[in-house]
Amino acid sequence: MVFYIVLAFVIIQRLVELVIAKRNEKLMLARGAYEVGASHYPFMIVLHTGFFVSLLIEVVFFSGQFTPHYIWLILFLLLQMLRVWCLVSLGSFWNTKIIILQGANVVAKGPYSFIRHPNYLVVCLEIAVLPLMFQAYFTAICFTILNFIILSIRIPLEEKALKEGTNYTAYLERNNVKQP
């Protein structure tokens, strides 16, 4: 039973995030922003949808572990707090797509003052932690690898777009980062 509650919570959370992302996308596009890397976005949708399907199938038909291991559950809840901190810190700049507002300052507050892409860290950890909570090892391993592959495409695209389209130099100076 707990498995279905956790799964429903995460799916509802993701659907709410998609609504927020769509709203933010409209706001940014109205301000003159543009999208980068649209060609890989459908693969991300397939990856994340496949993750939930795989998790459901593996838990229901193979692991049968419907009660979470509480250490994993606590870690998962901490990740949710970090996820919310990421979204709040980025405000209208947060999106599931790469949306660049020409000349904008790169956000360097909240968790972004400590790590370059904390939201991707959260997603990577969630993709491992959520299945491990219910002993869905195949889903944890398979989708962690697939997520790393998609992020190995996405993060360089996003970094390049930020460097070319935003006030990236100000970000580097604010955070005492030497330019490569």
TrEMBL record:
Compartment(s): Membrane
UniProt membrane topology term: Multi-pass membrane protein
Keyword Cytoplasm: no
Record-linked Pfam families: ICMT
GO molecular function, a single term: methyltransferase activity
Transmembrane spans: 45-63, 70-94, 120-153
Principal place of residence: membrane
InterPro entries: ICMT_MeTrfase, Metal_cation-efflux_comp
GO biological process terms, semicolon-separated: methylation
Keywords associated with the record: Membrane, Methyltransferase, Transferase, Transmembrane, Transmembrane helix
Name of this protein: Isoprenylcysteine carboxyl methyltransferase
Species in which this protein is naturally found: Solibacillus kalamii
Lineage of the organism: Bacteria, Bacillati, Bacillota, Bacilli, Bacillales
